[in-house]
Q: What sequence folds into this?
């Protein structure tokens, strides 16, 4: 029994954590008053130059990623899933961009937050390619969930977020928290 789980905005509140930091960087470092796009996994201004974005990633995103708050009860319920015998694989886009090194701290982050895992797959946009033998796939991104439905036999669970709040697909189980994820999976086992 295997479960593949996304990291950003699925087990932790990445966008909510970085939004204020992006705004502070925009105001205090760049001395701008840009609109921050909170719909990005890494909130930022679309007006920033590539150099300004790279500096934000290198100086703030990479350094602060260890401090992103874990979602309520994520640790509790992932531990319960592990106790049920599931192999836990985390699968993430992190590390894809040259200046993003947050993939390197994932084991430390999971340990810090008492989250068990068996495997970590980083630097992938095509998460569905790793779902062949997974019973469940948990993510918050619409495209990732749609691809998982289209290209795998995994049951797909979507963590609700502002970016997917109006999205519905009868083949995807939409949840609001980790308790709902656990209860759904446990009901399938019982």
A:
């Amino acid at each position: 029994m295997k479960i593949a789980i996304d990291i950003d905005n699925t087990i932790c509140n990445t966008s909510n954590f970085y939004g204020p930091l992006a705004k502070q960087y925009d105001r205090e470092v760049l001395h701008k008053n840009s609109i921050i796009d909170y719909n990005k996994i890494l909130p930022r201004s679309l007006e920033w130059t590539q150099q300004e974005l790279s500096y934000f990633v290198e100086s703030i995103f990479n350094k602060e990623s260890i401090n992103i708050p874990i979602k309520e009860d994520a640790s509790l319920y992932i531990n319960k899933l592990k106790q049920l015998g599931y192999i836990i694989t985390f699968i993430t886009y992190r590390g894809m961009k040259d200046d993003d090194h947050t993939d390197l701290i994932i084991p430390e982050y999971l340990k810090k937050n008492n989250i068990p895992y068996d495997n970590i797959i980083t630097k992938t946009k095509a998460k569905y390619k790793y779902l062949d033998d997974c019973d469940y796939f948990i993510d918050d991104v619409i495209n990732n969930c749609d691809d998982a439905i289209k290209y795998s036999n995994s049951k797909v669970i979507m963590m609700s977020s502002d970016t997917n709040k109006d999205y519905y697909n009868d083949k995807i189980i939409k949840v609001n928290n980790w308790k709902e994820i656990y209860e759904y999976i446990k009901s399938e086992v019982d």
Q: What stands out?
A: The radius of gyration is 17 Å. The chain has a mean pLDDT of 95.
